Amino acid sequence: MENDKIDQQIREAAGFRHLRRRILRHSAQMVGANYGVDPLGEGPAAEVDTDPRFRVAPVDCLTFVETTLSMAYAENLTEARLWMDRLRYSGSKVAFSRRNHFMLAQWVPHLQRLNALRDITRKVGKGELLVHDYSKVPWASISRRFLPANFDLLNPPSQRAQMPLISLDTLEANLHKVPTGTVLLLVRVERPKIPVRISHLGFVIQRRGGGTVYRHASQEGWGRVVDEDLMRYLRRLDARSKWAIAGVNLQQPRMPSGRPGVLSEPGGAPIRAWLP
Length: 276
Fold this sequence. Notes:
The chain is an alpha+beta fold. It has one domain: putative xylanase like domain (putative xylanase like fold). The chain contains eight helices and eight strands, in the order H-H-H-H-H-E-H-E-E-H-E-E-E-E-H-E.
């Protein structure tokens, strides 16, 4: 999609009062976008990952959610690019080392600090509390396929992270409690040599005519952004996967207070930090 069309799309959706309508509009217009593994980076001036910092296609499951949110928070394309930087990086600089690579330890807490996400899992149902101690992860013995690219350039998390979960049964019994636009994170059981716990994410959409769908960038089978019946997708995945599902977590997007500010470019000095 050309930049002027994206800008027009954002300006039109910005007229919606409620954030969920903006999320619905932008995510719907990305349905059909091709899937691409790790399609975003720090731009052409970066030293490590020179992929673009913003694009609407291709996307993976994470960048689909990030791109949708950045456009939903914005008034125009320029601002959407600033929000994308703010969501993806901690601190005041665009850098590979500042990117929130680890979902449980970095990405979710970062967006919660920005007031961009609020955990509503316990409002939907009771369940277990995931506790993951990163200080016990044997990083040196973990296969590269389970680590971010260029992992040697990162300082891996070492804290203990927590996240409330509900089972698939509890989710199915309480689907009516999940608001449209909620980000559903798929959480797997712990494996000693796999530091990943959150393996997938997408948006929950409640259809007016009935039914609950999962709008997500699907790598397996579809290879693009699709709408699927939520519980049918989760049950199918649980039945065929060798890596068991521990449960799901539910995060409701919120409109952050203030503006995104401007992060410094790779290799540059900070220009302007978070504007409250």
